[in-house]
Amino acid sequence: MDDDYSADGDLESNSGDVSVADTASFAEVKREIKMMNVVRTFVFALMITFSTITAEVIYVVVRFGEEDVFKSRFHTYANQIIEGFYEKVNTRLVAADSLSTSFTVQASDMKSVWPFVSFPEFERRCTGTRQLADASAVTYAPWIQGEDTRKRWEAYAAYMDHEGTLESNHTDDFRVSDTDEDSVIFLQTGRSVIEGIYYLEDGQAHDLPPQGNDTDVFPLWQRSPESAVNGSDIRMYDQMSNPIRAQALNVLMTKPPQPLSGVYTDFLIYDSNLTDYAYYSTPRAALYAPVYDSANEDSVVATVDLEFMWETFLADILDDYVEAIVVVAESSCSGRQYSFQVQGINASYMGAGNLAPDPKTFSAPSPVNSTYEAFRQIILPSSDADASANDTSSPPQLPCQYRLSVYATEEFKASFMTHKPEIYRWIVLGIFLFAVGVFLVYDCIVDQQSNRVVESAKKTDALVSTLFPSSVKQRLLESHEKERQKHLEAKRVSIWQLNHRGSITEGQAPDSGEMRIISTPKQRLKSFLHPEEADMVATGAMNEAEPIADLFPNASVMFADVAGFTAWSSERDPSQVFKLLETLYRSMDKAARRFRVFKVETIGDCYVAATGLPDQRDDHVEALTRFARTSLLRTNELTNALESTLGPGTSELALRFGIHSGPVTAGVLRGEKARFQLFGDTMNLAARMESTGVPNKIHLSQATADILVKRGKAHWISQRAETVFAKGKGELNTYWLLTGASGASSTAASSCSGSVSSSEFMTKDTVAIQSPLGAPVCSGGASEAVLMGVIGGSKLNRSIDRLVEWNTGALLSLLEKVVVSRGGSVEPLQKDSSSRDIPAGASRSFMDEMELFVPMPEYDAGLVARIHDTSGFQLPRQVRFELRMYIAAIASGYRKNSFHNFEHASHVILSATKLLKRIAYADGHANEEHGVTTEDLHHFTYGISSDPLTQFAVVFAALIHDVGHEGVPNGQLAKELPQIATQYDNKSIAEQRSVDVALELLMQPKYKNLRDCIFGDQIGRARFRKLLIHCVLATDIFEKDLKAKRNQRWEQAFHKAPAESPAEDDMNCKATIVLEHIIQASDVSHTMQHWHVYIKWNERLFQEMYAAYKAGRSDKDPSEGWYKGELWFYDNYVIPLARKLKECGVFGVSSDEYLTYAQQNRDEWERRGEEICKKMKFRCEKEGEKKRDRRSILWERDERGYREIFHKESADLLEEGEEEDNDESHHSYKEH
């Protein structure tokens, strides 16, 4: 009894102790629960208040954001309208100047005496200018000074009208628009030419009274189009009788310091005095361009008048979706204002005065205004503008100027104001209220779970307490916490090491002027790839778990390969290759997410995707075919767009697809760089579908086609005409997926004498004669003889325009570095002659200007730092415009040759740019692994990497080195053009003429700003000239004197002991050699690139020479010795040149690449060259037969040899190696 009691007593005592402790703990818990309830209530109230405030703030922010977008877009569109207006004003000035200059040249050719000049075929000559300038009419009026001259001119006009010498101006080529015809009414004067010059007053014609010999008369003589006059003969009308026209003509009669391109009149509209030959319902502007008596622009003898509806200055500037904007135009002459509404691409007349809405009434920004000064800078040369601005004594002699005021409208603002603020406010409020409700539910759940955890913790604590004393339990908890902290610290250190491994310490900021450490491509690549980290990621638990893999019985696999990529990439810098692939793959990844397609991997230029895995789906075939079609169409758009940035040939790239459906084994292959992979026969057959496919088509297997048919998509496919062979499968029937687009971006084989790249043009200053080939050969200056573009006649085709844009970008980036290297400012040259001052018949040879070497600038740390950081710097808009216009002019100067054309010049630029970039990479430098300083790089590249002017000159030389090439060698050119050959001392005729043409064109006044940026000063001008001459003449590899000088330079630079010549001369000599080798290697770079690139340009050169032979310009058939000639060229020039590139030591891996390609192409040509020569000749002969068959539908367009051929293109002739690139870049899947 006592024992039991004692026991019970102990138990009761222990129980009482725990109960007391628990009671204290429970009281503390109750206090904490009460506090938590208070906090919870406060949090709920705070969340509701915060949600309401947030919703209102969102509403205000979004509404203000829309207001800001509206104001920003308005300013953007307003500035766009003003800039577009200035551009149209300038374009029309250029068009008028070109037309007036052509009249000056034609009058000189006709040996006419001013003012007794009439132009035959006036309508045809003006059609192109009207189309380009969007002019309503073009008129011509001679300047008649004095009463005696007037009487003689009236007799001349009556004689010309009676004899009917001038043919009718009626034509069907161009009509004014209905809007234009409705807005003009011509006065019916009833006058005839024999009645003499007349003036109008109150709509009535009156004979011009006799006047003294100091009077000036501008009778309207010829007009285009005549059909717009509605039968009224307005000739002989004196334009000086109209005050508005007289004001503009007086400006032209006052000889300015520099010749004017043209003068705009004040607004032409209804004249209450009816002194004009017509009155208009909408405002117009007339542009008077002076016609000079000679090319020297000594005296104005006549005017050319282009009339424009004022709406045309504002149309086609904005995008079509832009809502209405009001533009108020004001004239400086009369101060009159007229309002126009611009909506999208359309512009319409509103009325006289300022009819724009008040911006204050609907919270719109203030109007954006242009200035008279900006307009004056366009229509006046800089010197004239300054003189006119400073000369306050003669304001009437200033031409009329316009300024614009651009106003927003309520419709424009409404296009940016939406219901989004209200929607966002309610969405945010709803989200917060929903979050509060979720929080309440979650709080209840957490509270319940917490109660369970607390109860479990109590039981665990009670159990541990029964096993260990309280002190031991505390030590266990502390030990566990220390281990956890140690583990977290180790993890943090590992992550830090991963993030900081391989980092390169950069030098001081560029503006400090001190040397910087350059991160080479190899270092950047090594800093990205770390096998040690891969070992850390790949754990050793592979053998402890089952592999992650499964079989997917219903799946579809797609292979997509970029056809022509291998050849294309051989021409480009690695960064350009990756830019293309990243752009294409990014677009395909976006489409894959849209169609829920699983991207397996990309290897090289091959994209692998699948559907039906890892998530199975019934529409796996439809989804994958939709994805393939979308990728095909989008890729064609991207390659066309990328050609302006990645260079020629990019638009010819196309995807080739192959799709097969069937079972696929898929899983994670663990180890280093573990990834999800696919295996099985379905993969192999999908790869075969791609490799046997055609660019721009989607090739489907029989299994894939059967599934599409079964799912009701039979109209998506068409069976391939021929079977295909697959390894291990034999002959297979396959299908094409119908994409619903033309798809093919292939190019037909070029003809022997047809144009491969550019159109043929003639200049306004050209006197045309016929060469033996029938192409125009011109007399006069070099640029006049070669640059054959008539503004308003023909336009560069789209492919050439893309090349012009790409070349502009390539030269612009270098030109920006040139200007930045001089401090970023552009100063005009103090002395800037327009051309070489050479007497007629004297030698124009550049050979005497060549020296042993071109001096290079010394190392300047500050200069190098500036050219390494050109971010934020941009050349003035006028300089960029002049650069593009210059390149377009050069492009128009390239003739219709198969090889020596603008496309080949662009290919040379591409190669030269690649070599210049490779020089800057410092490949092969002794300190490459540890970092190369800018001074190391300067000496390593002989100063080229530190001199942007030298780099610009090399690329510029590549641009112009073949301009005006006649398609025959220099020997034949000397026979055909002996006078030109004599001018250049019968040496390097084509090359010297190209330099002459380019420099003479560059020195024209219209490119003054461009020259200032390139030259900087007279020293820079002299250096640029020397560099250009050295580079261009280096492309003539057969001239003995030049070859001897190059050999002398090579021996002195690389084969003499360093002590035999000063270090500076040795460095300059080596730099000159490197520059010449860059341009030489670039000129024949196709021989040192991919086999397909070589075959393409080799055949074009053959076509050009074969065309010359067929035209009687060559005595020898090129096909007879072409095979052996190519082998000789490789053995004696190309391969030795590639070896010299390597010996120069500055081109890094590019020299190895060029040498490898040269040797491979030489061996391939030795094996296949004879067969290829036969096929090239066969294609040329077949193309010649096709041309002879089409001659019946050839017609002469005008006396300059323009022709148009209306025909349907026949199928491509035999294409060599069209599908040889199918398997070159396939990965291991395609080799199973």
From TrEMBL:
TM spans (from-to): 42-62, 423-442
Checking SUPFAM superfamilies in the record gives: HD-domain/PDEase-like, Nucleotide cyclase
| UniProt KW keywords | Lyase, Membrane, Nucleotide-binding, Receptor, Transmembrane, Transmembrane helix
Q: Where is the composition biased (Acidic residues)?
A: 1212-1223
Per the record, the GO terms for biological process are: intracellular signal transduction; receptor guanylyl cyclase signaling pathway
Q: Map out region (Disordered) in residue numbers.
A: 1211-1232
Subcellular location per UniProt equals: Membrane
Q: Which residues form the PDEase domain?
A: 807-1107
Give start and end of each Guanylate cyclase domain: 556-690
- The answer, when asked if Nucleotide-binding is one of the entry's keywords, is yes
GO terms assigned for molecular function: 3',5'-cyclic-nucleotide phosphodiesterase activity; adenylate cyclase activity; guanylate cyclase activity; nucleotide binding; peptide receptor activity
Gene Ontology CC terms, in alphabetical order: plasma membrane
User: Which superkingdom heads the taxonomic lineage of this protein's source?
Assistant: Eukaryota
Chief localization class?
Answer: membrane
Protein name, UniProt field? Receptor-type guanylate cyclase gcy
Native source species = Seminavis robusta
